[in-house]
Amino acid sequence: MSTIVGGVDRSPWRVSVGQDRPRLTLVQDRVAPIVVAVDGSTASGHAVDAAVRLAAKLNAPLTFVYVRRGPPGFLGTPVFERRLTKELAEARRVIDGALLRAARAGVAAEGEILEG
Fold first, then answer.
1. Residues 6 or more apart from 58 whose CB is under 8 A from it?
2. Phi, psi of 24 (to 5 degrees)
3. pTM, full prediction
4. What is the pLDDT of residues 24-77, one digit of tens each?
5. Residue 16's pLDDT band (boundaries 50, 70, 90)?
6. 3-state SS of the chain?
7. Which domains does the chain have, with CATH numbers?
8. Of 91, 43, 84, 28, which Cα lies nearest the Cα of 64?
9. Which of 37, 58, 61, 92 counts the highest number of beta carbons within 10 A?
10. How many CB atoms lie within 10 A of CB 62?
């Protein structure tokens, strides 16, 4: 439940060990990060807008994540590289669009492109 970012614990939760079992308590001055999956679809755009509004309201960190599958390796060097370049460009376009929407609302955000 703890999120470590750059060596800093950003989790809103603290675990303390009592006499017989651990206790989970909410630290009031911290808000859990909001993570939003984006893919460029209309539904994704609605999710971005909702997340930006929520992050602004809670003053929470916001991260947009684009998960790509990647081209199959059997395609060979020139085809594989062209397709990979195209997929990464699309991922970057989608992430940049989400970051722009957050910036227009005055919300600090970051983006990640993951493979999986």
1. 31, 34
2. -100, 125
3. 0.69
4. 554 555 678 899 999 999 999 999 999 999 999 988 889 999 998 876 767 677
5. low
6. CCCEECCEECCCEEEEECCCCEEEEECCCCCCCEEEECCCCHHHHHHHHHHHHHHHHHCCCEEEEEEECCCCHHHCHHHHHHHHHHHHHHHHHHHHHHHHHHHHCCCCEEEEEEEC
7. 1-30 (no CATH), 31-115 (3.40.50.620)
8. 91
9. 61
10. 24
Burial of 48 (0-12, 13-18, 19+ CB in 10 A): buried
Structure tokens at 106: 């005055």
The position carrying tokens 């020139």 is 78
Q: Which of 108, 107, 109, 115 is nearest to 91 (CA)?
A: 115
Axis crossing angle, helix 77-104 with helix 42-58, rounded to the nearest 10: 40
Structure tokens at 38: 């984006």
